Amino acid sequence: MIQPFTPEPIRYVAEDGTPVQPLPARFTPELLRELHGLMLQAREFDRKLITLLRQGRTTFYAQSSGMEATQVGLARSIRVGHDWVWPYYRDHTLGLAMGVPMFELISQCLGTNSDTCRGRQMPHHFAAQAQNFVSISSSIASQVPPAAGNAMAQKYLGVDEITVCTFGDGATSEGDWHAGLNMAGAAQAPALFVCENNQWAISTSIREQTASETIHIKAKAYGMPGYYVDGNDIVAVMEVMTAVAEGVRAGQGPALVECLTYRVGSHSNADADAEKHYRTREEVEEWLGRDPISRVEKLLEKLGHPVSAEERAEIIARTHREVDEQVLRAEATGQPDWRIIFEDVYADVPDHLRQQEAFLRAEQSGGPA
Amino acid sequence: MTATQDRQEQGAVGRTRTINLIQAVTEAIAEEMERDNRVVLFGEDVGARGGVFMATAGLQERFGKHRVFDTPLSEASIVGAAVGMAVRGLRPIAEIQFADYMGPGFDQIISQAAKIRYRSAGQFTAPMVIRTPSGGGVKGGHHHSQSPESYYTHTPGLKVVMPSTPYDAKGLLKAALRGEDPVIYFEPKRLYRAAKGEVPDHDYVVKLGEAAIRREGDDLSLIGYGGVMPDLEKAADALAAEGVSVEVIDLRSLVPWDRDRVLTSVQKTGRAVLVSEAPRISNFMGEVAYVIQEQAFDSLTAPVGQVAGFDTPYPYVQDKVYLPGPNRIVAACVQALNY
User: Fold this and answer.
1) Cα–Cα distances in Å, from A55 out to A329, B53, B264?
2) Looking at beta carbons, which residues of chain A come within 8 Å of B76?
């Protein structure tokens, strides 16, 4: 039985890889290696995408380095393709771990013809129908009330799905966040709210964001349990998240889980020199010491199943190779043409848009505009 | 009246410097904070970070955290708090990180900021400025590229401004801060560093509600504001090369807007083409077109032309195609000229 409202984050594994409570039986070396591989892949994906950004092949990227345990742990705690997810814009690791093809993620970042979203949104704003991974919006917390509604529909329909809604710490200040949690609480809808508390909303620290000691205690006001988890401990994230998700699924009403983690990179390419402006190198170094990937490596070592340097290098090389391949494959599909401007605005194209489309067609073909 | 004459009229003589539009914004804020200690600045990331575009860089260091501060990520709170501060006697500048994010603050803008003077019969007022980067052309997709000015021009009680030059950016922002009404101050983000120009060393303001004539001409009045202005200039150059004399007008402020200068121009040229990158339906330029046909119908030798964005969400990949560029503007002018 996982306890809500703990004063300290729930954890199973300390920074040095020592278990601080007995590991649940399912965390076999095989599973831990698999999770390690997923997290390492996600980190290398970040690294490669930053390279693409520097090469000018994409124009925006928001790293999730440092937050892999939270996102991979969440992905492995829900029923992918069955449950619904309303993500926020730093969730590509969640997407990867849920099985969204790397090709789709890269295509969206490059805005190519192979982008399932047709180049409509800025890079890093995916949607993946097969995984019920609903379109990412840049507007902070605007996904929270719709997620509450998604969960209310699931309750109405009597399905055993749940709705997962993720957000950063900054989102918890928005009116939409409070409105969404309140609605889900009042409706006793099967919603799992997950705060990926990485402690910085661009340059605003959590201490400037709220006078509340933690985020999870806000759940009290909305009549739902709030759980506090070490978001860099993948065992803790999966244990808590799985239990809470299944409780939500069983009709116990919505819940909020706060994963305390840290984004070690900048917010995006827009503030690449974060340490110069708003946070200290010491703080970043301190959190690097709590790194989720090296924590699992240390744990595996203590369990007598270390990840060898060769295995590690192989995962990195494979990820780099795969990203390179998928980038070339995506780029080969070209760029969506001007027609994408008019499609999907309405279910049926109204006359005024047809006229504007005809105007643009003539202009683009060099005819009379 | 030309832009040069405008400056002379406002006493802008003496030494000048060349700066870009974002520097003009920073200077205007700094000078007004220096001049009036009621001016405070806040929003997301405006403090140590200096704003996502660095418009407020160095201001927290210079004026302290009590006057320049970061807020929780909540546009409703930012705008609502600004209203309360203004009512209590401060002169708040609220930065909304992108105009696309004003949605959560919309109720506070239209219900509180815009209405408090009217509903209290002037007992309480909210003189404040909401600054926000707006418009496309920076590969931002629809959440970083929209032109929502018409939502606000439709709301009585608000003033709405959008400069296109450093001179105007500085002078209009100062005027907005010295005024008695809430002002939505849109900053065309694609001109932040692209628009460079001279500003005088001494203090000056650009009065809200006066358009600038960027160049004089006899055959057609080409009217725009904000991010499209460089395209109007390019279109006028192209037409000049064909022997067409175009008068280029920058509205600079939309509420109030300069009917007189627009009408005088159209009465002289007989033709008007209106340019804005916002979607066409309910575009503010529809109001300008209406006034032209109402007040200058007899002078018109062609229907009023309009070049606007499409009635679609702003696209990411094809954003250059979406924006009205010089070619589309020239085509609309040619259509009016050949009517």
Assistant:
1) 17, 22, 51
2) 174-175
Which of B45, B143, B331 shows the shortest C-beta gap to A203? B45
The ipTM (two decimal places) reads: 0.72
pLDDT tens, A97-149? 999 999 999 999 999 999 998 888 899 898 898 999 998 888 899 889 889 98
Over residues A71-105, the pLDDT tens digits come to 999 999 999 999 999 999 999 999 999 999 999 99
Asked if A21 has any chain B CB less than 8 Å from its own CB, the reply is no
- pLDDT reported for residue B231: 98
In angstroms, the separation between the Cα of residue A295 and the nearest Cα of chain B is 32
**A15 within 8 A of A289, measured Cβ to Cβ:** yes
Task: Answer for the pair A204, A267: CB distance below 8 angstroms, yes or no.
Answer: no
Residue A369: predicted pLDDT: 47
List the single residue in B48, B73, B312 with the smallest CB-CB distance to A140: B73
3-state SS, residue B212: strand
Chain B positions in Cβ-Cβ contact with residue A197 (cut-off 8 Å): none
Chain A residue whose CA is closest to B49 = A277
Among B72, B321, B331, select the one facing A341 at the smallest CB separation: B321
Positive/negative CA dihedral, B26, B31, B36, B37: positive
Q: Which residue has the higher pLDDT, B8 or B327?
A: B327
**A62 interaction partners in chain B (CB closer than 8 Å):** none
- Pairwise CA distance, residues B185 & B130, whole Å: 6
- Packing angle, helices B229-241 and B326-337, rounded to 10: 50
Nearest to B234 by CA among B251, B218, B219, B246: B246
Cβ of A203 and B312 within 8 Å?
Answer: no
Query: HSE (CB half, 13 Å, CA atoms) of B326?
Result: 10
Mark which residues 171-200 of A lie under 8 Å from B by CB: 171, 173-176
Identify the bridge partners of residue B212 per DSSP, sorted by sequence position. B250
Band the pLDDT of B118: cuts 50, 70, 90: confident
Query: A270 versus B233: which is more confidently predicted?
Result: B233
Q: Smallest Cα–Cα separation from A261: which of A118, A126, A94, A140?
A: A94
Per-chain mean pLDDT for chain A: 94
